[in-house]
Amino acid sequence: MALLPILEYPDPRLRQKAHPVVHIDQRIRQLAQDMLETMYDAPGIGLAAIQVNEPLRMLVLDISEDKDQPQVFINPVLSALGDERSSYDEGCLSVPGFYEPVERPARIRVEAQNEHGVSFIVEADGLLATCLQHEVDHLEGKLFVDYLSSLKRERIRKKLQKQHKLQD
Ligand code: QAP
Ligand code: CO
User: Fold this and answer.
1) Comparing C-alpha atoms, which of 129, 131, 147, 139 is closest to residue 84?
2) 45: CA distance to ligand 1 center in Å?
3) If we measure between CA atoms, which residue out of 7, 12, 49, 45 comes closest to residue 30?
């Protein structure tokens, strides 16, 4: 097991489009375990592979209270169910310290494979729907700050960039 370093906005590597996972093998299972460990340590409720500088189409999440329901989504395909939208205060391990409301489709469906290569489908609403949409956005190089006004986004970018300079 290993804790992986998390890339932080505005790192350009977060803007890569992630590649499909072709073979779900031991390396992928190890990456999923390391991502879960990294997410729980943070602590967070969702993490995409690109955030640990692995541009692959996979993500992990656990929205359970007791943090005992890890879920692994490989090559997820997401679609909205209906036109209803809902707003949720979102954060991101790659945008530490900032939470802002984002409006997204309220109900979704995701088809994916698990770490054993078995296909499954989930229909979700509430926090799970928000979290899945947020994480699937990462696979396209998209971040929740992209939904904010440019004023808010620039404020966040400048504050994080300043922190990064102080850390170096
Ligand atoms: C995505 O985000 C998400 O700013 C997952 O200082 C978040 O796990 C989807 C975190 C909210 C829906 C709603 C953020 C940890 C964790 C921070 C996370 C921080 C420490 C974020
Ligand atoms: Co995120």
Assistant:
1) 129
2) 6
3) 49
Using pLDDT thresholds of 50, 70 and 90, give the confidence band for residue 1: confident
Query: Taking a C-beta distance cutoff of 8 angstroms, is the pair 15, 50 a contact?
Result: no
**In this structure, what token pair is assigned to residue 10?**
């505005």
Mean pLDDT of 83-104: 98
- Ligand 1 neighbours by CB, cut-off 6 Å: 42, 44-46, 88, 90-93, 96-98, 130-131, 134
| Residue found by looking up tokens 């904010």 in the block | 148
Q: How far is Cα of residue 93 from the mean position of the Cα atoms in its chain? A: 8
* pLDDT mean over 57-62: 98
**101-139 pLDDT, tens per residue?**
999 999 999 999 999 999 999 999 999 999 999 999 999
Ligand 1 centroid distance, CA of 64 (Å): 14
Look up residue 151 and give its two tokens. Answer: 């004023």
